[in-house]
Design brief:
The chain is mostly beta strands and about 170 residues long. The chain is built from no helices and 18 strands. A hairpin with a 4-residue loop joins strand 10 and strand 11. The model has no long low-confidence stretch (mean pLDDT about 90).
Length: about 170
């Protein structure tokens, strides 16, 4: 896109290769554009803007981290949620932690409970789990534990393959 993050007089913005200011020096810190988004800070709050200085992800978060699948983890008041890189909130920031899966899902953690979401923000296992782990045998399966019993979730078909009624599984 030909824009460069720059700072001047204690503020940050973006210039082009002709040394013209394209995005005003109104930020505390700017990082270079990647995938047509730039991470920008106003004091301690962070968000993402596009090349026209439009907020994609509002500059109101304490922390942002870009994941695969065009998703961004956000943190607000020590609670995590998920936004898309198109600027849509798909999981509200109300969880104490998150675990990125390498396949088709995201685990959100709320204290001791874990919740499995798909990449569109839909809750896949309706009851809270105490443990969710990817299978090393089959990358379409997840092992989960509810009330001390283990089950298997099929990520490909978006369904519980085996209900949580077993003492465990060997992977």
């Amino acid at each position: 896109n030909g824009l460069f993050a720059a700072s001047k007089n204690g503020s940050a913005g973006f210039i082009n290769k002709k040394n013209e200011t394209v995005i005003p020096f109104q930020y505390t810190l700017t990082l270079d554009f990647y995938n047509d988004m730039a991470e920008v800070y106003l004091d301690t709050l962070v968000g993402f803007i596009d090349i026209h200085n439009n907020a994609i992800i509002p500059i109101r978060f304490d922390y942002v981290y870009e994941l695969e699948h065009d998703l961004v983890v956000v943190s607000e008041n020590n609670k995590y949620g998920i936004w898309t890189t198109q600027g849509m909130e798909i999981i509200k920031p109300e969880y104490t932690d998150y675990i990125e899966l390498y396949n088709e899902g995201i685990i959100m953690v709320d204290n001791e409970d874990q919740f499995l979401f798909d990449l569109d923000g839909n809750l896949l296992i309706k009851k809270p789990c105490t443990y969710i782990e990817e299978s090393f045998i089959n990358d379409e399966w997840l092992f989960f534990t509810q009330n001390g019993k283990s089950g298997i979730y099929d990520l490909h078909n978006h369904e519980i393959l085996l209900e949580a009624k077993y003492d465990g599984f060997e992977d």
